Amino acid sequence: DAGVTQSPTHLIKTRGQQVTLRCSPKSGHDTVSWYQQALGQGPQFIFQYYEEEERQRGNFPDRFSGHQFPNYSSELNVNALLLGDSALYLCASSLWATNEKLFFGSGTQLSVL
Amino acid sequence: TQLLEQSPQFLSIQEGENLTVYCNSSSVFSSLQWYRQEPGEGPVLLVTVVTGGEVKKLKRLTFQFGDARKDSSLHITAAQPGDTGLYLCAGGGGAGSYQLTFGKGTKLSVIP
Question: By the CB < 8 Å criterion, does B58 face chain A?
Answer without folding.
Answer: no
